[in-house]
Amino acid sequence: MPATYHIEPETPRKADLPMAKREILVLPDARLRAIAEPIAKVDESIRKLAKDMLDTMYDAPGIGLAAPQIGEMKRIVVMDLAKEGETPDPIVMINPEILKYSEETVTTEEGCLSIPEIYYDVERPAEITVKYTDLDGKDVEREAKDRLAVCIQHELDHLDGVLYIDYLSRLKRDRVVKKFQKAEKLAKKAS
Ligand code: NI
């Protein structure tokens, strides 16, 4: 048996699973507007879901993904804010909840895998405290600021059917929604 045989990630059998890329739902899919259900227990199915979500996010590529974006109405989000060339830093948050928001705000250009190729500035609290359960079922509380704080707020909004375009003026938001409604109609006609 070659020596390299044992060089495997933490979960040897699971590592044999092929990369599972899932379809990302796009506006105006109604599931993006629904409220996701709390996760009762962190079991193998949740760990598999987290892996699928990370695979899908990295493939897109994106820095964050919430379960409703792949049609799973569960309160789980994944993120990785490592820049290109840096070591990957996957974060998985189960049943996340923001406990504290700073008064200080930050304006960042946001985009969303479910609203492709569109970017707008959004103002949000610059610092937050978030609590969640991790993949080992442990409760975690952590502070985040700037990019990470913004990303967490954006992803957590998805669990309540909120999209970042909801923070834009009505005019801008309607323009985005109409664009995607039209694209959906054209796609239906073509199929
Ligand atoms: Ni998004």
Q: Please compute the radius of gyration using only Cα atoms.
A: 18 Å
Mean pLDDT: 92
The succession of helices and strands, N to C, reads HHEEEEEEEHH
| Biggest sheet record | 5 strands, antiparallel
Bound molecules: nickel (II) ion
> What order do the strands of the largest sheet run in, or round the barrel if closed?
1-2-3-6-7
- Which shape, going by the Cα principal axes? globular
The total beta strand count reads 7
Strand content: 25-35%
Structural class: alpha+beta
Instruction: Provide the helix percentage.
Output: 25-40%
**Poorly predicted tracts of residues:** 1-15
The rounded distance between the terminal residues' Cα atoms is 51 Å
Please give the count of helices. Answer: 4
3D structure, described in words:
- It contains four helices and seven strands; from the N terminus they run H-H-E-E-E-E-E-E-E-H-H.
- The radius of gyration is 18 Å and the shape is globular.
- The N terminus is likely disordered.
- The strands form two sheets. A five-stranded antiparallel beta sheet has the order 1-2-3-6-7. It has a two-stranded antiparallel sheet with strand order 4-5.
- With 191 residues, it is α+β, with helices and mostly antiparallel strands.
- The site of nickel (II) ion has 5 residues, from helix 3.
- Nickel (II) ion (NI) binds next to helix 3.
